[in-house]
Design goal:
Blueprint: E1 13-17, H1 28-36, E2 39-44, H2 51-56, E3 65-70, H3 84-104, E4 109-113, H4 123-130, E5 136-139, H5 144-152, E6 163-167, H6 172-181, E7 184-188, H7 194-203, E8 211-214, E9 222-224, E10 238-242
Parallel strand pairs: 1-4, 1-5, 2-3, 2-4, 6-7
Antiparallel strand pairs: 7-10, 8-9, 8-10
The structure holds S-adenosylmethionine.
């Protein structure tokens, strides 16, 4: 009688929130999963290391295989006829297939994600394509909004105040309408959108409350008064917080 062939179980996919940059701001659970994984998948720009990899590098061993997923486009997308959406979809499909090859071979893959994986996280594109086919676990991370509030030492929202998270990529009129509606906000994805966002903040009379930070908790973190920020130097990893008015008691 032929010996039964044992099926090779698939590897597990871990979506790991690695926190905002400081290597110590990874959770104990994410660190355990990171060190258990044979393959470390991470996104990075062309010729770049990737912030998520940088923040966990001190925790990795040499025998863990690195799987870089290099973005085909970063920064402001080229104008039409360049098909930005189609290019990114094809990139995420191909990235998921590269991860799936390891999972099918029985290797656990840790997919790194800055901050939290399910909060505007790059891991979501892998999750959308792979989670229903493979054993998947998501480990939350310290997201950049709360990390920025911590380094700025600014309470974000008191009591029943409303808090909006906005992308600086929104059209100026939408930003103005939404910021006028809320009592507190975080505005992410600044980069080349900074000047537009600052204009709106000043028009709404929020300049006194708004706080700017770039690369919060990373080695090259910078905090500057909004008025002194040079728009040409604003990196993608930056944020403006408009904290709620301080609670003065009943
Ligand atoms: C694609 S989102 C990723 C969010 C991430 N998943 C999280 O939980 O924070 C990228 C945006 O997050 C913000 N961001 C991420 N890390 C940051 C940091 N260390 N300091 C300031 N902003 C940061 C920036 O606004 C950046 O444009």
């Amino acid at each position: 009688m032929a010996a039964a062939i044992e099926p090779i179980p698939s590897g597990r996919l871990f979506g790991l929130g690695v926190g905002p940059g400081d290597p110590e701001l990874i959770t104990v659970k994410a660190l355990r999963r990171l060190r258990e994984s044979q393959v470390i998948a991470y996104y990075a720009g062309p010729h770049k290391h990737g912030n998520a990899l940088t923040s966990v590098e001190s925790w990795l061993r040499d025998d863990q295989e690195r799987l870089p997923l290099i973005y085909p486009v970063t920064g402001r997308p080229p104008p039409p006829p360049f098909d930005y959406e189609g290019t990114m979809r094809a990139f995420y499909d191909a990235s998921a297939e590269r991860v799936a090859e390891h999972l099918r071979a029985g290797r656990d893959v840790a997919a790194l994600c800055e901050g939290d994986p399910l909060f505007y996280g790059s891991f979501m594109y892998l999750h959308d394509r792979l989670a229903e086919h493979f054993d998947t676990e998501v480990v939350p991370g310290v997201c950049s909004v709360v990390a920025s509030a911590s380094v700025l030492q600014t309470p974000l929202v008191y009591r029943d105040q409303t808090f909006f998270v906005l992308a600086g990529t929104l059209p100026e009129a939408d930003l103005e309408r939404l910021l006028a509606e809320t009592q507190a906000a975080a505005i992410m994805k600044l980069g080349s959108n900074f000047e537009k966002v600052r204009r709106v903040i000043l028009r709404l009379g929020l300049g006194g409350r708004a706080r700017y930070v770039e690369r919060a908790t990373m080695a090259n973190e910078q905090i500057r008064p909004l008025a002194e920020v040079d728009p040409a130097q604003v990196p993608y990893f930056s944020m403006i917080l408009v904290p709620g008015e301080r609670w003065q008691g009943e």
